Amino acid sequence: MKKVFISHPYANDPEENKKKVDRICKRIINKDNNIIPISPLHLFSFMEDDSYRKEILDICYKLIKFCDELWVYGDSEGCNKEVKFAKKNGVKVFFVKT
């Protein structure tokens, strides 16, 4: 099963962005049952302040290395860091238009 890291903005509109990533992940699963989306937004969206940002990003980097691909849905500082890290570590990056 292919593991795909879902890179999506969060901080600019947490509530709406979580809904968007819910739909993205469900669409992926419904379209191809050989892909499992890995969503850090779902792992950490309960943390409302930004005081753990570095620790969360460190965990995201570990998840990216675990995944086969990184799919990018948007543009943010966090997305850009994830893309840079993925490319540096040989993880395929795809920019997805919604």
Q: What would your notes on this structure say?
A:
It is built from 4 helices and 4 strands. The chain is α/β, with parallel strands linked by helices. α3 (53-66) runs parallel beside α4. The chain is globular and about 35 Å long. It starts with a strand and ends with a strand. The model has no long low-confidence stretch (mean pLDDT 93).
Question: What is the average per-residue confidence, as pLDDT, rounded to a whole number?
Answer: 93
Adjacency order of strands in the biggest sheet: 2-1-3-4
The total count of strands amounts to 4
Described by strand count, sense and barrel closure, the largest sheet is:
4 strands, parallel
C-alpha end-to-end distance? 23 Å
CATH architecture: 3-Layer(aba) Sandwich
Q: How many separate domains make up the residues?
A: 1
Element string (H = helix, E = strand): EHEHHEHE
Poorly predicted spans? none
Backbone shape? globular
Query: Might you state the CATH topology name?
Result: Rossmann fold
Structural class: alpha/beta
Say what oligomer this is. single chain
Helix content: 40-55%
Tally of helical runs = 4
Share of β-strand residues: 15-25%
Cα-atom radius of gyration: 13 Å
CATH level-1 class: Alpha Beta
